[in-house]
Amino acid sequence: MKKYHLYHRVSKLVQSEDGQGIQRQEQGCEIWITDYNKRLLDDGKQPFSKGLVYEDHGKSAYTAENFKRGQLGTLMKDIGKGTIAKGDLIVIELIDRFSRADVDFVRKKFQSILDSGVKIAITKWNIVFEEKMDGIAGVSARMLLEIGMYLAHQESSQKSARIKATRVLLEDSGKKSIAKPPFWLARNPDLKSYTVIEENADLVRKIFNLKLNYNYGPQRIIKHIGDVNIYRYKFDDEGNLIKTTQNSSLSESTVNALIRNPNVIGMLKGKNYYPRIIDDKTYYAVQRRTGENKGGANDVFKNVFLGVGKCGCDIKNISELGCISFNKCGYTMAYSSRKVKNPVKGMYLRCNNKSKKNKCTAKNIDYYKAQQKVYKVLKSIKFDESKSVDIAHLEERIHNLDKEISRVRELMAQYTDDFEWERQYKVKRDERKKIENEIINSKSMISSKISSLDLDFNVEKDRVLFNQILKDNRVIVYFKENGMDIKVGSLNNIGIRVGYEEGDIEVDDVLENLSKGSFKAIEIVDKKRKRFWFSSMFDD
Predict the structure, then answer these.
(1) Closest CA to 109 of 72, 157, 58, 162
(2) Longest C-alpha distance within the chain, in Å?
(3) Other C-beta atoms within 10 Å of 194: how many?
(4) Residue 268 backbone zone (phi > 0: left; psi -120 to 50: alpha; other: beta)
(5) How many CB atoms are located within 10 Å of the residue 497 CB?
(6) Integer Cα distance of 482 and 331 in angstroms
(7) Which one has a higher pLDDT value, 491 or 202?
(8) Which residue among 37, 137, 295, 441 is the one 20 to 30 A from 395 at the CA level?
(9) Rg of the chain over CA atoms, in angstroms?
(10) What is the mean pLDDT of residues 211-235?
């Protein structure tokens, strides 16, 4: 027996909360399908039984959000999977419930449903659209559909233009947008400023803190924070701040969205607009931390050499002429562990190239020994802990500027007579160069010793911090069977070669003097013997 499936949509969440729109649409569609089934039975045809119901709450049909992230998109996928079968019927109140997007876009989506053999009923018109509709009735239905799609799009387009014009007028008068602010803000009665709702702002700060200092994924953040009730606030007619609606509980998608939301640093569409609740340094450091995190939500950060450690094993190459040469493997060293009585002995680093076609012959490296030795070696190099965040902020600004520059280049090519784009291109290039110099200066300003941090590698926070310091100072560690080559980018790419065995390392001021002179590398043979190199021992 063929089925009918209902689709309803309201563009405002308040409508869905109050039952407005959705309930009316459902009742109207059920009344129509009951009448339609009676007509089918009178004609000796089989009626439709009830199938699925799809509802979109607060999803825009003008921007096609109901297709991209809504239930209408799910409906389309169900047609492709066969959940909605050929001969079934989709029942919609009116074409504007389906979409208000560009007419060509809507036409293609509408027709794709019909091409799959599924019918569409528009109850307000009392018309059922099918794959093949011949005759005058078919032509009339198609004409009505075209007019309906056009009017729906025009209405939303004009509404959008009015909203934009209203926003411009508000901004010109110093008043803020009528749009709903983030949940940690309430718009003041003067319509020109916002009040920070501290209980909600503190929740956002806690999320950023857990991400920055512990590298927690969304699931762990939610588990750590626990169940919280999040309420929106607004000012009533008497100027009192009151609770209004309750937001949904924290979810993984909500946490991820908050971490990426520039509203927390006061930005809206590239402009300073809201009061900031997170400082720039923290925000941009978290952006980079999020981009670098490759683990799952429940992963614990264990490998301090993530993004830093590479295989230094020499791979033998034989050319067609029989010449022999050696190149470093250079593949990432992956952290692994196995269950043993002593957990320290169960941790090791393994070359990712060992599973490739041209397998690397490098032996696994004792992770614990490598971690402790690198830490001891770098203890006497002066690193600035605060630069970890400063540099992240600057590098994220470079990343965003590159996007803007790319867009301006496109507009320069498109509008060759408009020299404003050329001027903007130069301004943004100059700004990028300025930030690049700032990064170089930041990485050369090394003012405090890493030993003062007193890191404890049993604590995840300290492991994350050490990894961040290594990255910010452009440290690369090449692991070999008998030792490591440590390259420190922020000290003029100076090199340190050292073994894995325990023992005190006395580098102290030698490295600082070395970086200012002609030597480029040092090999620590033992506590008393050191070898100096004029060129980097790491250069291939």
Answers:
(1) 72
(2) 104
(3) 17
(4) beta
(5) 21
(6) 18
(7) 202
(8) 295
(9) 32
(10) 88
pLDDT for the residue 366: 92
CA distances in angstroms from 176 to 49, 192, 276, listed in the order given: 51, 5, 15
- Which token pair is 298? 């429940």
Query: Which residue matches tokens 């007019």?
Result: 147
Q: Are 278 and 204 in contact (CB under 8 A)?
A: yes
Closest to 391 measured CA to CA, from 457, 357, 356, 435: 435
- What are the contacts of 399-403 at 24+ separation with CB within 8 A? 401/428, 401/431, 401/432, 401/435, 402/432
- 3-state secondary structure (DSSP) of residue 195: strand
Contact between 405 and 425 (Cβ < 8 Å):
yes
CA 65, distance to chain mean position in Å, is 19
DSSP 246-294: EPPPP-HHHHHHHHH-GGGGTEETTEE-SPPSS-HHHHHHHHHHHHH--
Q: What is the pLDDT of residues 128-147, one digit of tens each?
A: 999 888 888 888 888 899 99
Distance, in Å, from the CA atom of 110 to the CA atom of 113, rounded to the nearest integer, reads 6
Flag whether pLDDT at 59 surpasses 70.
yes
Q: Which of 121-130, 271-280, 383-392 has the highest mean pLDDT?
A: 121-130
pTM for this one? 0.41
The DSSP bridge pattern shows strands 521-524 and 494-498 to be parallel
Q: Are 313 and 327 in contact (CB under 8 A)?
A: no
Is 513's pLDDT higher than 70? no
| Per-residue pLDDT at 18 exceeds 60 | no
Q: Does residue 522 register a pLDDT over 80?
A: no
pLDDT attached to residue 447: 40
48-65: average pLDDT = 84
Residue 118 has pLDDT above 50, yes or no: yes
Spell 16-30 as b/e; 16+ CB within 10 A means b. beeeebbeebbebbe
- Tell me which H or E stretch contains 309: strand 309-311
In the structure encoding, which two tokens stand for residue 18, read together?
């109050």
Could you tell me which residue, 165 or 402, shows the higher pLDDT?
A: 402
pLDDT value for 177: 61
Give CA–CA dist 106/101, Å, rounded.
6
Pair 467, 306: CB distance under 8 Å: yes
| Exposure class string for 78-99: b at 16+ Cβ within 10 A, else e | bbeeeebeeebbbbbbebbbbb
Q: 478 pairs with which residues across the strands?
A: 310, 485
